[in-house]
What does this fold into?
Amino acid sequence: MLDKCMIILGIETSCDDTAAAVVTSDRVIKSNIVRTQSTEHLPFGGVVPEIAARAHIEVLDQLIKNALDQANVTFKELDGIAVTGGPGLIGGVIVGVMMAKAIAAVHNLPFLAVNHLAGHALTARLTNDLEFPYLLLLVSGGHCQILIVHGANHFQLLGTTIDDAVGEAFDKIGKLLGFSYPAGPQIESLAKNGNPKRFPFPRPLVGGVKQTSPYAFSFSGLKTAVRTCIQKHLSLTCKDKADICASFQAAVGDVLSDRCHNALKWCEDKKLPLQSLVVAGGVAANEYLRKRLTLIANEHNVNFVAPPVALCTDNAAMIAWAGIERLNLGLSDGLDFAPRPRWSLEEI
Ligand code: KG4
Ligand code: ZN
It folds into this structure.
């Protein structure tokens, strides 16, 4: 750990949020600005990569200026620039990386290319000062994985999805129900007034540690079952929609709980000194799912840690923090770093 308190500017442009933040190594988020592109993508019902990249270009420089102003920090006071180097929509990643390289070159600062998933994975250390190792359930629009985080630069993948990511399933089902993107928050809100037992949707791959993929996820069968159910009803009442949302969310809760139970059991068998189950990514904003995961953590005698909602969805504070973790390990990146559309955490 470096003695001096470091101040890092973080930049995130890997999907449909343009974000800039200033974070210090003593865990203070001095500013954290996110501009969501929802209006740009609304007519298309999903994120259009070309439109996303152009929208990042239009606002990124002003957003960085605002983040520095809010933090009351100048470029000269920074100790490094951290940016999402991938994985993500490559046009957007290039916009952020080029901007960060330019700032690093002009102000002679360390350039830190951060894996977006590492940003999500390490957020709990920014908010809760967690010790390694911990078990991480990463659930977002693009990813659904269970990992053991052994260190800021050492991730062990236990399982991932064989088809859709869980956030993607929320968004696709929301689209069928006529909700706008991203549909997760609206499904959660409707589910509060719905009957979770009305529709017995499948729980893909659930079945204990003895089955072939105890840590893998699959959501396409569940998605198809919900689609078939929606198509069967000629017109859906508000009550029908609420019941579908609640039944779908309950199925997702069962799947995530089962996978986490299996992974925690694996860690117990391996005698890993694990103290926490951490949830990260946009879907971790869901309060119902948080409650379900708290129960599993309690069953296995580990703490359940979920960062505040604003730090679960995409943001640049998590990227700045992951940059600080890199600097603490004595790592930084060259200005020849090539933006990466795909970048698994295990490659780190
Ligand atoms: O991490 P994130 O902001 O972006 C990436 O995908 O990297 O996650 C966005 C995803 C979307 O699929 C969105 O529908 C989902 O997170 N999401 C939720 C909730 N809030 C956001 N899913 C379920 N319940 C929520 N409350
Ligand atoms: Zn994300």
About this structure: Residues 15, 140-142, 167, 170-171, 182-185, 188, 281-283, 285-286, 313-314 surround KG4 (ligand 1) (CB under 6 Å). The chain has two domains: 7-122+311-347, 132-307.
